[in-house]
Amino acid sequence: LNCDDSREIFWAYVVKRSDIFGDPFKLAYDGRSALFTVDKLSLKQVSEEAALDKFSFKTVRENKPSEVTILIKPTGLVHLDFKNAESGLLDEREKGAIQFLDILFAQGRSCPLFELSKSFKAVKNSFYFIPEGAGVDVKYGIDLWRGLFISARVIDGFRPGINIDVSHSCFYKHQSLINLICDILNGDEHQAKFHPRQLKIDTRLKPEHLRLLIPELKGVSIHTTHRNQDRIYRIKDISGTAA
User: Which domain of life does the UniProt lineage start with (predicted)?
Assistant: First the structure.
């Protein structure tokens, strides 16, 4: 499971088990393994250290729901005290990100319970705005998206600080796989040589085209459009013959 899957599963579980979590806006989850809460959770302990529960959920890569196991281990209180901190210089370890504040600042753009999260793509501490139309075309089927990098840190003098930078990154265009293949083959040429309308039942790619496409498409995830439900497949290899 990636961070997006984990967030979808966790927040769906939070909504379902309101008897455990209460107000979801009193929770901060990083999409991996850290959960912070304002109030102590009412957990049924399976041991002195952990509470275990099973939950059925269907990700977009599956045909049917799978049973996932959710393990929660209480670790104690988190106390951030800057006023009473001793003065002095910090070493590099102490200047690391304050995990709780990092998650808190990120959650509005990553938690699926917030409407705002639908407009952003979260990648670690960066949040890229999903363009409503086309982004900045950098050819080869790729758009350039603009976003923000947000990180909470402890700075000299034991003071809390927030580092916010404008960030840019490349993402695949929201388009059909056939259009993506044509964009890759066209490269940065001004005059497009490949177009979906050229495809016929006997269309074959030349060896040099396959050599260009295979490294670009291997590992790319695609959404299906021929079913009523959304699914994601990952490309493993490419055939030179049209299906």
Answer: Eukaryota
